[in-house]
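A further point concerns the way the authors explain their paired sequence and structure data. For illustration, here is how one protein appears when written out as sequence plus structure tokens:
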Amino acid sequence: NKRRAEALKISRQHDEFKTEDNKRRAEAHKIERQIDEFKTEENKRRAEALKISRQHDEFKTEDNKRRAEAHKIERQIDEFKTE
């Protein structure tokens, strides 16, 4: 009887340990998922920032082309006036 009681006690302790271990694993998985979600959102933000940066660079390039064309026209006008 004592041995059975001891065996049941050990079995219950083992079950409690497994339950706690499962809780810890579930919490670890939850944290891993949150980290993955955070990384995904961070990657989206970085991609958007890069897109905006490229658009800004394209705008600057086009603006520089327009300015160069405007300077060219101004020089032509000045040359025309001096003739």
User: Anything to note?
Assistant: The longest helix spans residues 2-82.
